[in-house]
Every structure is written in structure tokens, then in C-alpha cells.
Amino acid sequence: MTGQGRQQKMLIMTPAQCRAARALIEWTQPQLAAAAGLGLSTVVDFEKARRAVSRDAVSAIQGALEEAGVIFVAENGEGLGVRLRRRSKPE
């Protein structure tokens, strides 16, 4: 997708955003790890900032959360955030 109406994808999700996003969709860390195709220790270590996690792993985590309906909100003067995508109304 291109154009002004498209929100630019955030390049780097923070550990706090990851925890908040997971809480919004009520996923456990093992559920997120499975959805992202990663080991549980990678998700745990990222969320606790225990070690540097590869950009590819963070991207996989973020992608899984976005697929589940999470939108990552970039810095807008009030700070970073997350929210749920609006669900389409039934016809």
C-alpha cells in the first residue's frame, strides 16, 4: 500500500509496547512465541530487555501481534502506544 492514508509501519517495537499489545489481545508469552515462530525464551528476553534480540525476531513478534489486530502507535507528542484495530461491522 502506498499513499498518504497509510500509516507508516514502526520499525522498532519496544518491550513495553510488546507487553501492552499482548495484554490487549489476551495472549500469553507462549502463544506469542508460537504465532511468531520463535522460541519462548526470545519473547521473554525481549519483553524483559534481558538481551539484545535480533531485528528479524522483533519484526516477527510485531508481525504476529499486528496480524492479531494490534496497531502500534508511533511517537506523537504523548509517547508510544498500542491499540486494537477497528473491527468491521457485521452486515
Present the secondary structure layout.
Elements (H helix, E strand, L loop, with lengths): L14 H10 L4 H8 L3 H8 L7 H13 L2 E4 L7 E4 L7
Antiparallel strand pairs: 1-2
In short:
By secondary structure, the protein is mainly alpha-helical. The protein has helices at residues 15-24, 29-36, 40-47, 55-67, and strands at residues 70-73, 81-84. The protein has one domain: 434 Repressor (Amino-terminal Domain), CATH 1.10.260.
Account of the protein in words:
- With 91 residues, the chain is mostly helical.
- It has a single domain, classed as lambda repressor-like DNA-binding domains (434 Repressor (Amino-terminal Domain), Orthogonal Bundle), CATH 1.10.260.
- 43% of the residues lie in helices and 9% in strands.
- The protein is built from four helices and two strands; from the N terminus they run H-H-H-H-E-E.
- Helix 2 (29-36) crosses helix 3 and helix 2 crosses helix 4.
- It is globular.
- The protein starts with 14 loop residues before the first helix and ends in a 7-residue tail after the last strand.
- Mean pLDDT is 86; it is low at 1-8.
Keyword list:
single chain; disordered N terminus; 9% strand; mainly alpha; 91 residues; globular; two-stranded antiparallel ribbon; 434 Repressor (Amino-terminal Domain)
Multimerization state? single chain
Number of strands: 2
Provide a count of the helices.
4
Which series of helices and strands comes N to C?
HHHHEE
Mean pLDDT: 86
Cα Rg: 14 Å
Low-confidence stretches: 1-8
Compute the number of structural domains: 1
Strand order of the largest sheet: 1-2
Q: Could you give the distance between the termini? A: 26 Å
Helix content: 40-55%
At the first level of CATH, what is the class? Mainly Alpha
* Global outline: globular
Examine the coordinates and then state which fold CATH places here, giving the name of the CATH topology. 434 Repressor (Amino-terminal Domain)
